[in-house]
Design brief:
Elements: H1 5-29, H2 42-57, H3 66-69
Helix pairs in contact: 1-2
Amino acid sequence: MKIDKAFLLKRVLPVFAGASLGYAYYYFIGCTSGSCPITSNPWISTIYGGVAGFIISIPSKKKADDNATN
């Protein structure tokens, strides 16, 4: 089975980076009182970071080639 490096770089890496940043946000900045719903729990902040990384990794629509219409 061949691993597609482009897929890993474009889709999987941003999710792991977002999850890591979400956990880092919990660890360094997080809420200790428990009143903050996202940053008081390491699992939730990690999942939110992963979801944010996934959203960033979704490709946007490409514009149509202007030369094709002329």
